[in-house]
Each structure stands twice: as structure tokens, then as C-alpha cells.
Amino acid sequence: MQAAMKEDGLRTRLHCLLFGMAAWLAAATPASAFIAYVSNEKGNTVSVIDTNSWAVTKTIKVGQRPRGIEFTRDGKLVFVAVGDDDSIQVIDVAKQEVVDTLPSGPDPELFALDPDGKLLYVANENDNTVTIIDVEKRARLGEIQVGVEPEGMAISPDGKILINTSETTNMAHFIDTATRQIVANVLVDARPRFAEFKRDKSEVWVSSEIGGTVSVIDPEKREVTDKISFQIPGLRSEAIQPVGIGMTKDGKTAFVALGPANRVAVVDATSHKVTKYLLVGQRVWHMAFTPDEKYLLVTNGVSNDVSVIDVAAQKVIKTIQVGELPWGITIAQP
């Protein structure tokens, strides 16, 4: 009887130990591992980050001044805009090397893929145009004349409207993708850098670096309905420069990179109120969520690193050293 009771007690302790170890391993290991590609503007490289180990696993040599970067819809290729080479380079994810080049205009910076992944719209900063590229044919289909120094690019979830922001004209241009014509010009604050649609297409947000605001635009009325401003104790207003924007799929929470303020603002995307500021690396620029939205990775240009933000906890949990002057980032499943 006593021997049986001892054996039962041993089994219970063993089960508890195994359960505890399993729980610890689940907490210590990300639920899914993803791959991030980071463009290093001054290093002329792309850093590959494994989100399982939170480490750089490969550094890929690319052209001069890489900035805008994005995976293709199937995750097999990565496009990177190499501004000083006036082209879009194509990285094969399996080979982890540049395998092709797409034609663009002078000094491509940011670009957007249409929802089907068939067309690439590229902002060419030096000639005030948006180039349209057929991805499969690797051919340029045409150009759209926009404002001075175009940069930000966003496409509506249904693919019908393309937004381009022009830094010097201080406008968000609404482009009909069917006719390839500008249908509206919305004035925003100084030096608009980035545009982001809500998934339900109810709003498009445009960051203004020098203006220090994010303009909330109604895409149907094509007018600014609200402006988000930022105040950080101890920092001068001119040091707070909104650039990259990331928004959760449910449209409830947004994150805004504030450049040399070295902060990411957490914003209630319904009320448009800032709820928190997260201290990150120096000169935070662009960002990307992991597909499960557990983490948000942001590039810090001056400190040459990437900060990892736990989205639910809203705190920075890791810093990863990358190449020189990290600028853009894109993430897909391995």
C-alpha cells in the first residue's frame, strides 16, 4: 500500500515537472519563427533576421543606398529600392542573393505592391513621378506625374486607390489605379513621409516629419478629419518627427515612429489619442509587424539596430545590431 502511494506521488511530481518545463519552453520560444529583411541605407546591405533567435543570420550585399523594401505576396522574393542605382533589385529568398533588377525612375525610395502582387508602384524622388512596373514581365508600364519629391506610398485594401505623398508639395495625392490619374490632392503638414490605410479603408494616415503630426484622412471625402500631435516631456517639438506608421489588423492600435525623438508613440486608433511612448534606438524610422502581430520590429538609423516591441505588453524586449543606417524592414514566414 505504502509502496503504491509512493509510486503515485512520484508520478505526480514527474508530471508536474514535465508540465512546468513545457510551459517554460513555450514562454521562452516564439510561437512562430519569421524572417525579417532590413535595408541598411549607408551600408549598402540587407540584414536577414531570424525571429526565433532574434539574431542576424545573413548579410546580403545590394546596390547603392537601399531604402524601401518589401516581400512579394508569395514570400519567395524581396524587392529593395536602391536609390543611387535608380533601380529595384530583386532578392531570391531561398538563395539569399540578388538575382534580378526591375526598371524604375531616378532615385526610387518607397513603393507599394497591389493586392494581387502583380503591379509595383514606385515613388521616384528625383523626377516627381510614380513608376508602374509589371512584376511578372519585369517591365515598366508607365509613369504618373505627382508632386515634388514623392516618397510615401500606400494602396487601398481593394487596390482601387493609390496614395502618394510629396515631401515638398506637402500633399497626399489620391490616384485612381484604373485610369492612373490623380483624382484628389489633400494638403497635409510639412514634409509628408508615409501613408497607411486602415484595413477597413475607413481612414488613411499620413505622417508629416517637419510638421510633427499625423493627418487622418477620410478616403471617401478626401479631406483631413483629424490630426494627431505628439508631446514628450523634456524634448523640443522640432525633435519629434513622425515617419513610419504601423497599424494592427483590427484597426484599434497604431504605432508611430518619431525619428530623432527616439520614441515610438502608441496611439488609440479609434480616438486618435496617444496612450504611451516607447523608448527605442536612435532615429527610429520604419517598422513591420510579425504576421501574428505578437511583435513589432522598428529600425533605428543612428544606433544601427532594430528594436523588438512586444505588442500586447507594449514594451521593448530586445535590441538587434544590424548594418549601417538601417532604414526599411519587411517580414514574412520562412
List keywords for this structure.
single chain, 334 residues, mainly beta, Methylamine Dehydrogenase, Chain H, four-stranded antiparallel beta sheet, 28 strands, 51% strand, globular
Mind telling me which CATH architecture of the largest domain this is?
Answer: 7 Propeller
Biggest sheet: strands, sense, closure?
Answer: 4 strands, antiparallel
Spatial shape: globular
* Total of helices: 1
In the sheet with the most strands, the strands line up as 3-2-1-28
Counted beta strands? 28
H/E series: HEEEEEEEEEEEEEEEEEEEEEEEEEEEE
- Helix residue percentage: under 10%
Name the CATH superfamily assignment of the largest domain. YVTN repeat-like/Quinoprotein amine dehydrogenase
In CATH, what is the class of the largest domain? Mainly Beta
CATH fold label of the largest domain = Methylamine Dehydrogenase, Chain H
Mean of pLDDT:
92
Q: What structural class do helix, strand and pairing data support?
A: mainly beta
The end-to-end distance, rounded to whole angstroms, is 55 Å
Uncertain stretches of 5 or more adjacent residues: 1-6, 16-31
Structure description:
With 334 residues, the chain is mainly β. It folds into two domains: 1-30; 31-332, Methylamine Dehydrogenase, Chain H, CATH 2.130.10. The protein contains one helix and 28 strands. The chain has one helix at residues 2-28; strands at residues 35-40, 45-50, 55-61, 66-71, 77-82, 87-92, 97-103, 108-113, 119-124, 129-134, 139-145, 150-155, 161-166, 171-176, 181-187, 192-197, 204-208, 213-218, 223-229, 245-247, 253-257, 263-268, 273-279, 284-289, 295-300, 305-310, 315-321, 326-332. The strands form seven sheets. It has a four-stranded antiparallel beta sheet with strand order 3-2-1-28, with no helix packed on it. The protein has a four-stranded antiparallel beta sheet with strand order 4-5-6-7, with no helix packed on it. A four-stranded antiparallel beta sheet has the order 8-9-10-11, with no helix packed on it. Strand 8 (108-113) and strand 9 (119-124) form a beta hairpin. The chain is globular. The model is unreliable at 1-6 and 16-31 (pLDDT under 50).
